[in-house]
Amino acid sequence: MVRKLLYLVDSGLYFRKDIMKPAPLKDVIKKEYVKCAKDPVYFMKKYCVVQHPMKGKVPFHLYEYQEKSLQTFEEHRFNIILKARQLGLSTLTAGYSLWMMTFHADKNILVIATKQDTAKNLVTKVRVMHANLPSWLKQKCTEDNKLSLRYSNGSQVKAVSSGEDSGRSEALSLLILDEAAFIDKIEPIWAAASQTLSTGGQCIALSTPNGIGNWFHKTWVGAEDGTNDWNFIRLHWNLHPERDDEWREEQNRLLGPSLAAQECDCDFLTSGQNVIDGVILEEYRQTHVQDPLEKRGIDSCFWVWQPANYTKDYILCADVSRGDGSDFSAFHIMDVETMEQVAEYKGKISTKDFGNLLVNTATEYNNALLVVENNNIGWAALQQCIDRGYENLFYMSKDLKYVDTQHQITNRYRNQDRNMVAGFSMTMKTRPLVVAKLEEYFREKSVIVRSNRLIDELFVFIYNNNKAEAMQGYNDDLVMSFAFTLWVRDTALRLRNEGIDLQRRTLSGVSSQMIPQKPTNENNSWEWDVKGKKESLDWLIK
Asked: Are residues 59 and 130 in the same domain?
């Protein structure tokens, strides 16, 4: 009894001034229990401990921003937290989970993170706090393992890694999305989990930023704009009382400016490993993007900004879907001279119908140079273009030494040269070249983009282990078709000019072996005096 009274005194539970006449222990515990049940902030500050990497188990002393965040959890069902690194928000949500399980029966809490270990760490924090509660607060465990903790009152917390089935078919009281901006396939996860929260469940999505255009960013923007049901909480690095400008400068040295901006400044635009700078993309969205003049098709997937102009040259580049339903067929039409996007398609369509659409559209746009990616199922759409006899079809050499345009290689030559292949081949060799060309054009702002759909895809087009691709759960069909549009246009014109220069040098050599006579073409026209007669040599370079 003496030991228990001393504990009560040390913990602040003993509230009688007269130490010789303590209140009955049962009453003290009852009042304290009720106080903890009503106030999660009090509960966590008073009784929760955390595992410090250097000091071991220490009391969880909440900072002011943590207290305010905890109070907000109770006031709103959906909370999205944009945070700097190492602010203790994962620990805070662990404490909130423990409080909910301890004082409420039949609460089902699910933690989802991009990796199972990350989700497991949060459950471990709950377990450490539970193990160090006083006996009169501690619930009886019926299940205790690395990935879950279950109480006899029916409440539990469980950790899972991201997957399309995560959170499906479970009635959830609280869903925690830890580092939500980095979770793979989070959109279908949220679509499934949100249904399980429809009876009043809560969600806490917390993360550092990871670029623009992903689910976390869109949800945050919607919360700021008031267009969704989420409450937003921004936690900047300087909220931590132990951090100052010197600390921030040290993060720049340790992480580099870009990663430090992501981890410390809550800056979406400078965060992530986007192929195209987010600042440039946002500028494009504000200055170039326009609503299309018309949307064609039953599904309105074909967007047109400029109708065909028969005085202009166009290029049409198409990316054919794999056919597994996970991606889209897409194409762009670009004015070759002005580098302006004039039309775009993104939809799900059979390869045969897509091939017919390509031929019809390319024909409409002044017999545009038609470029079709020939990888895998792309051949089915490409073959449809060949079968219909489309003349201005793109061919390339297998060794990339030359690229076909209508003015370079005749149909007869195409059929005879086995080194030529119809369509564009996206390979390990060509992909880096294509992506580099995409980045170059946007960096130099030398291309005009009208499509908001394309800009959205570019925001989630990132470097993943040095490979440029869409974030998990997103598509890059518009991006890649646009990228090799730029590459083909640029490369074809360059190689064509190189070919003309070579032909001109060849013609100069031929002329030197003719009857010596000074040419009369001072203006560099292709007319030469041969035996006193004017002869045009234009046919040699057509």
From this structure: yes
Is 89 within 8 Å of 206 (Cβ atoms)?
yes
Which residues touch 175 (CB under 8 Å, ≥6 apart)?
109, 110, 112, 167, 193, 196, 197, 201, 202, 203, 204
Is 397 domain-assigned? Answer: yes
Please choose, from the candidates 62, 134, 56, the residue with its C-alpha nearest in 3D space to the C-alpha of residue 94. Answer: 62
Question: SS3 helix, strand, coil % of the chain, rounded to 5?
Answer: 40, 20, 40
Q: Would you say residue 199 lies in a domain?
A: yes
Q: Find all residues with CB under 8 Å of 72, minimum gap 6, and list them.
A: 79, 231, 233
For residues 202 and 74, what is the distance between their CA atoms, to the nearest angstrom?
Answer: 9
Domain limits at 4? 1-38
Backbone angles phi, psi at 529, to 5 degrees: -85, 115
Domain count across the chain = 3
Residue in 383, 375, 495 with CA at minimum distance from that of residue 424? 375
Give the pLDDT band of residue 469 (cuts 50, 70, 90). confident
Q: What mean pLDDT comes out for the span 84-109? A: 92
| Structure confidence at residue 428 (pLDDT) | 79
Do 6 and 87 share a domain, yes or no? no
User: Cα(98)–Cα(170) distance, rounded to whole angstroms?
Assistant: 19
- Residue 109's H or E segment, with its range, is strand 108-113
Pair 91, 140: CB distance under 8 Å: no
CB 521 within 8 A of CB 527: yes
Region 311-317 average pLDDT: 92
Do 429 and 391 reside in the same domain of the chain?
A: yes
What tens digit of pLDDT does each residue of 504-528 get? 443 444 344 444 444 444 444 445 5
Backbone angles phi, psi at 206, to 5 degrees: -125, 145
Burial 103-112 (b: 16+ CB within 10 A, else e): beeebbbbbb
Please tell me the distance from the alpha carbon of residue 128 to that of residue 51, in angstroms, as a whole number: 7
Instruction: Report the pLDDT value the prediction gives residue 488, as an integer from 0 to 100.
Output: 86
Closest CA to 122 of 151, 94, 146, 161: 94
Instruction: Tell me the average pLDDT across 47-69.
Output: 87
Closest CA to 101 of 182, 43, 52: 43
Q: How far apart are CA 173 and CA 139, in angstroms?
A: 18
User: What pLDDT, in 10s, does the model give residues 125-136?
Assistant: 999 999 999 999
Residue 497 has pLDDT above 80, yes or no: no
Kindly state whether residue 321 falls inside one of the protein's structural domains: yes
The pLDDT tens digits of the residues spanning 471-483 come to 766 788 999 999 9
354 and 213 in one domain?
Answer: no
SS3 category, 371: strand
**Roughly what angle, to the nearest 10 degrees, separates helices 278-287 and 452-459?**
170
